[in-house]
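REQUEST FORM: STRUCTURE PREDICTION
Request ID: SP-0412
Submitted by: Lab K.M.
Chain count: 1
Length (residues): 231
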Amino acid sequence: MAIEDSVAVITFAASKDASLSLDAVSELADHLDTAGAPMGEVSVVMLTGTDGRFVADVNRDELARRSEGEEVSGDPRAWNRVVEALRSLPQPTVAAIDGPASGGGCLLALACTFRIGSERSVFGPVELDFGIVGTDSSADLVRVVGATTSAELLLTRRKVDGPTAKQIGLISEVLPSDGFDAQARRWCQSIAALPAATVFAVKQAVAGSTSASRDDILATLPPTSQIPAFR
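STATUS: Completed
RESULT:
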């Protein structure tokens, strides 16, 4: 994890065929706890991958062994810890996806406050039999794209590319693959440039976890001329 200009970046480095073990998910949960702690230093938390990939899918063989009563290393509640952290962190979380996000990777992205993709991003499928997070994943999908589109994506197992994902509201922005990491960081930094109190208040307000009013949030904003525009 690296912190720069009030943005904490957690980067997954994995080979093309790698899957995400419980040990790795447990490590992610620990990183999220660490990222959320220095509220004076971190205003936005970004999750990203390397080499045109996001977060690998869960290790399904490991899940199968667990379901049969076999012990595996790692925290059995690691996936729940990660999803709970993504929702409860005071900082907005951004899934920066340059490539495929399916299975567990897609569920993690849905739990984030924002998702940004690239020209080569592919989202889905979100699988009905993916039992590690349960119905929360469906609720996240409905929150992001609405009930009708969610039902279609779940039942048809359709994959969507970056431009289509933006059209249906699944992601906020499509960035070029060339220089994606640097552009994604700038996207996050344009949010982090706002007063931290504003960023945290908006995250809490839209999550329904606070009764902050419009006036409460506006009171934390700098003069209009100082508010950065997204580029």
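NOTES: DSSP finds ten helices and nine strands in the chain.
Reviewed by: T.R.
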